[in-house]
Amino acid sequence: MKAPGKASTIFPKGTARKRLQRLREEVYRANMDLVARGLVVSTFGNVSGIDREIGLIAIKPSGVDYDDLAPGNLVIVDLDGKKVEGDLNPSSDTKTHVRLYREFTGIGGVVHTHSRHATAWAEAKRPLPCLGTTHADYFHGEVPCTAVITDEQIRKDYEEETAVQILDAFRKIDYQGMPAVLVASHGPFTWGRDAAEAGYHAWMLEFAAEMAATAVMINPRVRGVKQSLLNKHYLRKHGKDAYYGQGGGHG
Questions:
Q1: Residues annotated catalytic, as ranges
Q2: Positive or negative torsion for Cα 165, 169, 173, 178
């Protein structure tokens, strides 16, 4: 493991300290949910969450085994990506997370995994087609795949430029109606109102990716679900007149 980077001298106190502890616990649970849902292998994968009132982000430390993870060893960074608290290095994907928080101001959590099926679509450099209503319940259409990152971007600042690739893919897409992306040759990122919802979206993305791969094998000529059915399933859960479920949950 690399030597820890130097932390800032900013230490939240009082109410901010309580909010930060709550954030740590939420992000810790969301990280462990990735393991429980079978979305990570080894130390691959990370979850972060932000408390926008105090302007701080909690994120998994780089290369730390999930068995060793605890709320107290999550790393705290600010919206410039500078470390505020923590004895360990933050995730190597921290710059990607931070840039997404700055640009997607309505999100409260970000997840990156290398889950098997979603990553396979990313490595195939193909967007994930919406072939049925299970996909449509969570993603309002095809999940986009970014362009392949250029050599210049890799040399410039790989993790920051990964976020740029995502932002470029969302120039004409609502990030709130499409809380997921496939980064070409790399893997999926998802986001949500908080870390828990971002993790739930990662789970649903993996499920949709597995079903789509199977459907394409069964019928290579399959086409996407018709727009009226897509809209019905998405909007009955997420539209202004949504009526699915009991409210308040991620399911």
A1: 137, 244
A2: negative
